[in-house]
User: What shape does this take?
Amino acid sequence: MSLNLQDIRAAHKRIRHISVTTPLIPSMLSGQAGYELLLKLETTQPTRSFKIRGATNAIESLTDEQKSRGIVCCSTGNHGRAIAFAAKQMGITATVCLSELVPAAKVKAIEDLGANVRRVGQTQEDAILETNRIASGGVTEISAFDDAGVIAGQATIALELFERRFDLQNIIIPLSGGGLAGGIAFAAKQIQPRVHVVGVSMERGAGMYEAIRAGKPVEVEEYPSLADALGGGIGANNQITFKLCRKYLDDIILVSETDIYKAMRIAFQQDCIITEGAGAVCHAALLAGKLKLEGATAFVVSGANVDMEMFQKIINGETLRLGDVEIGT
Ligand SMILES: *Cc1c(COP(=O)(O)O)cnc(C)c1O
Assistant: This one.
C-alpha cells in the first residue's frame, strides 16, 4: 500500500469544501488526569462524526466513470451517513447497507440524505455480504476503514492536531476497523516519531485487539454496545489497517460498558459535550484509571450520533438494558 504524508496533505485540501477543521479544546478533566488534556471535537463535523473526512476523500478520488455508476458501502451508521452526505453534495447515487444492530436515529439520518438504504441481517457480516453483492454489479464499494483514500482522509486529523500543538506527546483514539487510529498513528509518527498513540475499544467484540493478539484477522462475536459505532470485525481479507495498527499503535486499551456509560455522563457534565458511546471511550479509559500518561494529550472525540432518548437516560443516571446486561451508575 502506498500511503504517505503527501497523500494526507493532498486529502486535507481535497476535503475542505465539505469537512471542517474541528476545534481542539481544553478538557475540564486535566486536573484529575494529571496532564494537559485536549479534546479534538469531531462531533462538530457536518455529519457529527469524523467519517466525513474519509468518505469525502474516497469519493473525490473516483474516476468520472465510477462516479456515474454510483457507490455502495456497509456501515454501523456513521460511515453510511458520511457517504450519503458527500454523495449528495457531489450529485452521486449512494446505497448504504446496514444491519439491524444500527440504531434507528442513524438509519433515519441516512435516509433523510436521500441514499438508498438496505437493512439486512443481525450482524455487520450480513451487511458486508449485501454490499459485496451490489458491488459485483459494477457499483464501486467504499470500505468504512480498509481503503487508502478513507484512511488518508481520517489521517488529516493528525495534521490539524500538530498544526495547533507541535508539542503533543500522546494521542488517544477510539478503535474499531482501524482507519481512524491507524491513519492518525501513521501520519502522527511521520511528523513526530516520539508521539505515543493508543487505541481504545470496548471489552466485548474488539476486532482489532483480537486480531493483533492472534497475529491475523479473526472473527469476533458482536454484542450490543453503547459504543455501537465500534462493532464488527476487521474483515478476514483485511489489506491495510491490520498492518497499520500493528505497526503504529503503541497500545490498545479495552473499556467496559459501565466505563462508557460513566464517560458519556462526565463528558457532558464536565466538558459540556454530547458524545455517542464510541466518542466517549477515551474518557472511559481515563476514568477507569487505564491512561498513565505525561505531557500534552489529545483525545479524539469521534462522534455525537446518539439516540437522544437513550442519552437523556444516561445523563439522568437511569439503568439501561443492553441485550442481556443492565448498566447504570
Ligand atoms: C467508525 C467510528 C469509529 C472507529 O473508526 P475505525 O476507523 O473503524 O476504527 C470511532 N468512533 C466513531 C464515532 C465512528 O463512527
Remarks:
- The two ends are 45 Å apart (CA to CA).
- Residues 49, 51, 78, 144-145, 174-181, 229-230, 276, 278-279, 302-303 surround pyridoxal-5'-phosphate (CB under 6 Å).
